[in-house]
Amino acid sequence: MTDALRDEVRAWLAAHWTGPAADEAAARAWLAKVVEARWAVPRWPVEWGGRALPDAEARIIEAEFAALGAPGTGQDRTNLYANTLLAFGTQALKERLLLRMLRGEVPMCLLYSEPNAGSDLAGLRCRAERRDGQWVVNGQKVWTSYAAVAEYGMLVARTDWDAPKHRGISFFFCPMRQPGVEVRPLRQITGESRFNEVFLTDALIPEENLLGQPGQGWAVLQTALAYERSVMGEAARGPRSGVAEGTGEPPLIALAREAGRLGDPVLRQDLARVLAYRALNALNTARAKADLAQGTSSPLMSLGKLAMSRILHEEARLRTAILGPESLFEGPEHPRAEDANFLTLNAYFTSIGGGTDQIQRNIIGERVLGLPREPEVDRDLPFRQVRSQ
Amino acid sequence: MAGIGREEALAFRDQLRRLLAARAGEAELRRVMETPAGYDPTLWRQLAELGLVGLVVEAAHGGTGAGPVALELAMEEVGAALLPGPLLGSGVLAAGLVAALGDEATAARLLPGIADGSRIAAAAITGPAGSWTEAGVAVEAVPDGGGWTLSGTASFVLHGQNADLLLVAARTAEGIAVFEADPRAAGLVVAALPCFDHSLRIAEIRFTGAPARRLGGRPGWAAVEAALDLAQVAMAGEQAGAGRRVLEMTVEYAKTRIQFGRPIGSFQAIKHMAADLLLEAESAISAARHAAEALEGRAVGAGAAVHLAGFACAEAFATIAATAIQMHGGIAFTWDHPAHLYLRRARADVQLLGAPAWHRERYLQALGA
Q1: pLDDT per residue over B139-192, tens digit each?
Q2: What pLDDT, on the 0 to 100 scale, is given for residue A231?
Q3: pLDDT below 70 — which residues of chain A?
Q4: Do A134 and A223 belong to one domain?
Q5: What is the pLDDT of residue B217?
Q6: Are A72 and A119 contained in the same domain?
Q7: Which candidate in A255, A311, A361 is best for mutational testing of the B interface (most B CBs within 10 A)?
Q8: How do residues B117-137 score in pLDDT, each as one tens digit?
C-alpha cells in the first residue's frame, strides 16, 4: 500500500515537476496541478479535494515532494486558513473558497488583536450585529500583516454582550475589499511597516461567512491558533545586512573576531553563555521532534518560543557590547551598528508577538506543569459589566 | 566502549529506578550521609550486581559493557535520588582512566574488582588549586630502583578515604603519567576533607616518597582527559536528573500549598519561576544526553558537547535547586526539608570537575574561537 503510493507520487512528480516556478503565475499554475491531482490535502475527505489518507501515508507524499523541493502538498497540516474553513465553514463558503485557497488564489489576513485586547484577546470589543440577513461590523483591529492585499480576513468579533467574555464571540471570514474596511500601515520601532491597523466601519459580511455558531468563535479561534502555532517554528529573522554571515563560524564569534575583541576574557565568558542558549535550544528542538516521532508529546515544544526570546535579546545585547560606542551609529555606512540596533529592537517581535513571554510562562505553568490557573475576575461576568479602560 | 542498545539502556534505567526507589530514599540518604564512609556497602553490592558499578567497564573485564549513553541515562536516576557513594569516583572516573590507558594487562588486573564493586578505586588528579588541567597536577614521580616514588599533594579526590586502590596522575620527566598506589602504603596520608555536601566524600592525599607502579599504555594526560570527559558526562546526567526531580518536588508543593486562599502555584510570581526552571531543566537533559551521544560516537566536536554540558548542566541544577528553596519559602529553610540537600549537591557539582567559567572557555575553544 505505502509502496504503491510512493510509486504513484514519484511517477506523478516525474511527469509534472519541472523545477521551481519562475514567477507567481507559474507558482499558481503548479499549485493548481497539485490540487487537481489531489496531492494538496491528502488527509482531507475526498469531497474537498483530499484522499482521506492517514497521517503516515500523507507523510510519504510530503517526503517525496520535499525530496524535489516541490511545494503544494501538506496543506492539510500547514494551511491554517483552509483548515479552519474546512473544520467550521458553511457548505456555501467552502464551495466558494476552499479549492481556490489551496490553489493560492485567496490572499488572507488575521483580524484578531485590538488596541485594548492583546494578551487578553477574549476581551475584544469589535462589534458584529446581524442586520437584514448579513453581519455589520464596527471596531478596530491591529497587528495585521498583508491587510492591504488580502481578499478575506479571519475576524473575531463580539456578537453577544450579555454572555461572559469567551462565550459572546463569533468567527467570520470578513471580505477586505469593501468601503467599510480601511487599512493603515503601522510603523514599528524598527522603522519598518510590516503590520497594519484595520478600521472596520459598518463593514458587511454575508451570513454564510460565519464559521461555527454565533458565540462559538472562541473555540474556532483555538483551532486556528493551533494550526498557526504548529507552523510558526523558529522563523526568527537574522541580521538585516548579512554582515558576518557565511564564514562558517557562529556570527557572534565572527563579529568579536572582526572587532578585535575575541581575546577579551570577560567577553569570552559572555560569548560562550550566549552561544549556549542557541545551541541548547537546537538540542531541545531536536529532542522534541524525536519525542513526537515516537508519538510522545513533549513539553519542549512549548518552551521553544520562550527560549527564542531569550536568545534574540541576549544575542542583540552581546552584539551591542562587542561594538561598544560604534553602536551609536546608524545608516548604510555602519552595517554592524545597523544590525545590532535592528536586532535589539526586533527581538521584541518574538518576546511580545504571538503571546508575550509572560503569557507563554502562564501557558507553560498551567498546561505543561499543571499549575492552577490565576483566578480571573471577569471570566464569568456578562461582558457588558467587564471593566474597560 | 561499544555501548548497548537504546532499549537495553532504557530497561536498565527502569530497573535502577525501582531499586533506588526501594532502597535509596531520603531517610536512607540522611542516615548514610552522617556515617564516616558516606555510603551503604549493602546497597553498593546490590548496585554492582545490577551492573551499575561496572556499567562502562567492558564485559571482558567483568563489566556491563555499556557506553556513555546508557551511563548518562542511569546517572539521571542516580542524581534524582542524590545517591551517595563512590559510583562517580570509582565506577566512572577511575574505571574510565584504566580503560583509557588502553593497556590490556592493566585493565585485566584492575577492572574486574572495580566493576564488581569489591574494590573502590580513586583517581588522584588535581592538586589543591583544583584546576583540572595538566598544569594543575601537583604530584611528582621519580624513578626509584625498578619502581617509582611519588611526592606532592592531590586533592578533591572522590571517595579517596574509602579507596582500596589509588590511580595517581603525576609529573615525570616525560610528562604526566598514571601510577598505581596502595592507599595503605608508607609515604602517603589520606585525609578526609570536610565537605559542604554531606552526601559527598572527598579527600586530600599527601605523598612523601610513596612507592608506586607506573601504568603503561596511552600517554597519561590524554588518558586522564578521556576519563574526565566520561566523568563529566556522567555528572551532567546526575545534574540533569537531580534538577528535574527538585523541580518536580517544587511544582508539587506549589499545587498544594495554600496561601491567600489559593494554591501558591496559581500566582504568576511562582508560576513564571517554575516555567523558567522547566526551560533550565529540559535544556540540561538535552545537553547531557547530547554530550553522551557525542562521546559514544566519538563524534567530531565531542569536546564542545562535553564542555557545553559541563557548564549548562551544572548551572541549571544550581539555579533550580537555589530557586526551589525560594519558591518553597520557610519550609525549605529547615534542615528537615530535602531542598537544601539538592542545593548542597548542586553547589558541590559546580566545582567538582572544573568550574563553569573554565568549561565556557573550553567550549569556546572547541568552537574555534
Answers
A1: 999 999 889 999 999 999 999 999 999 999 999 999 999 999 999 999 999 999
A2: 65
A3: 1, 230-247, 295-298, 389
A4: yes
A5: 83
A6: no
A7: A361
A8: 999 999 999 999 999 999 999
Instruction: Name the β-bridge partners of A173.
Output: A154
A370 to chain B, any CB pair closer than 8 A? The answer is yes
How far is residue B225's CA from residue A357's CA, in Å, rounded to a whole number?
Answer: 41
Distance, in Å, from the CA atom of B197 to the CA atom of A333, rounded to the nearest integer, reads 56
CB distance A330 to A190 below 8 Å = no
| A373 domain-assigned | no
Quote the CA–CA distance of B240 and B315 in Å, as a whole number: 10
Q: What is the nearest CA distance from B358 to chain A, expressed in angstroms?
A: 9
The pLDDT assigned to A298 comes to 67
Residue A381 domain-assigned (yes or no):
no
Asked if B361 lies within 8 A of A256 by C-beta distance, the reply is no
| A136 and A247 fall within a common domain | no
CB contact under 8 A, A276 and B312: yes
Nearest CA in chain B to A287: B286
pLDDT at A241: 46
Cell numbers standing for residue A241: 545586512
| CATH assignment at residue A215 | 2.40.110.10
A130/A45 same-domain check:
no
Task: Report how far residue B352's alpha carbon sits from residue B194's, in angstroms, rounded to the nearest whole number.
Answer: 14
ipTM rounded to 2 decimals: 0.93
Residue A368 lies in a domain: no
In B, minimum Cα distance to A252 occurs at B369
Residue B365: is its pLDDT beyond 60?
Answer: yes
Range of the domain at A11: 2-78
pLDDT, tens digit, 9 for 90 and up, residues B303-320: 999 999 999 999 999 999
Report the 10 Å Cβ neighbour count for B196. 11
Q: Is residue A39 part of a domain?
A: yes
Q: Are residues A302 and A256 in the same domain?
A: yes
Record: contact B268-A361, CB cut-off 8 A:
yes
List the single best residue of A261, A262, A267, A283 to mutate versus B (max B Cβ within 10 A). A283
Q: Is A260 on the interface with B (CB under 8 A)?
A: no
Chain A interface mutation, best of B72, B244, B255, B271, highest count of A Cβ atoms under 10 Å: B271
Residue B174: predicted pLDDT: 92
Give the angle subtended at the CA of B232 by the CAs of B92 and B40, to the nearest 5°: 45
Domains of chain B and CATH, by start: 6-118 (1.10.540.10), 122-219 (2.40.110.10), 221-366 (1.20.140.10)
High-pLDDT (> 90) share of chain B, %: 95
Question: Alpha-carbon distance B254 to B247, whole Å?
Answer: 10
A228 grid coordinates: 498557526
Residue entry with cell 580513586: B122
Domain boundary among A231, A253, A271: A231
Nearest CA in chain B to A257: B369
B331: closest CA of chain A, how far (Å): 20
Q: What is the distance in angstroms between the Cα of A143 and the nearest Cα belonging to chain B? A: 26
Decide if B315 contacts B167 (C-beta within 8 A): no
pLDDT on residue A246: 46
Q: Which of A122, A202, A126 is nearest to A158 (CA)?
A: A126
**Predicted pLDDT at A289:** 81
